[in-house]
Amino acid sequence: MMKNGICLFMILIALAGCNLTESNTPESNEYNRMKTELDSLKSSIQSASLHASKQLITFLTFQNKDAEEAMNFYVGLFENSKVNKVQRYGENGPAEPGTILFAEFELNGSAFACSDSYIKHEWDFTPGVSIMVDCNNVEELEHLFNQLSDGGKVLMPIDNYGFSTKFAFVEDRFGVSWQLNLN
């Protein structure tokens, strides 16, 4: 990755140093070739960077046809969050048409994916695997606590447990568990 960045930098310097015009001269052909190569290199670097940042993704399997509702709830709850991709089951699929086959989203820069499982599994979400959120202040922690525990369960109320001055553990209405910690 660093090697590609250095190459990109060197090509940019070379292009900046060239005083080529866009005419039908051999120099302009070289300019266009270098520009095409630079654009290709930029695309490769961006693609590699995107792939590297998504190596670890938290995947949530919903069994009550509520993956989209949960995803939208989470995206609306956390800053700098967005839905990146949604694929739905179609008319001829094994699941109810329109439910989530696969979706990708980000919660404040962290990668997540989800689906609506058409198979009813014997397992579901467990508090043994939870999403840890480091909150910047008490107000943020209390806001997340109130929103996430609404319709869910409080596993550990907001308190000082010795390892953190403010900490809470909740299971939201979709069954996903969250640990809220004050930085």
Kindly provide the radius of gyration, computed on alpha-carbon positions and rounded to a whole number of angstroms.
24 Å
CATH fold name of the largest domain: Signal recognition particle alu RNA binding heterodimer, srp9/1
Tally the structural domains: 3
Q: How would you classify the helix and strand content by structural class? A: alpha/beta
Please state the oligomeric state of the protein chains shown: single chain
For the biggest β-sheet, the strand order reads 1-4-3-2
Average pLDDT reading: 84
Q: Which segments are poorly predicted (pLDDT under 50) over 5 or more consecutive residues? A: 1-22
Fraction of residues in H or I helices: 25-40%
- How many individual β-strands? 8
Main sheet: strands, sense, barrel: 4 strands, mixed
Which overall shape is indicated by the principal axes computed on the Cα atoms?
flat
If helices are DSSP runs of H or I spanning 4 or more residues, what is the number of helices? 4
**Order of helix and strand elements from N to C terminus:** HHEHEEEEHEEE
Give the termini distance in whole angstroms.
32 Å
> Into which percentage range does the β-strand content fall?
25-35%
CATH architecture of the largest domain: 2-Layer Sandwich
Give the CATH class of the largest domain.
Alpha Beta
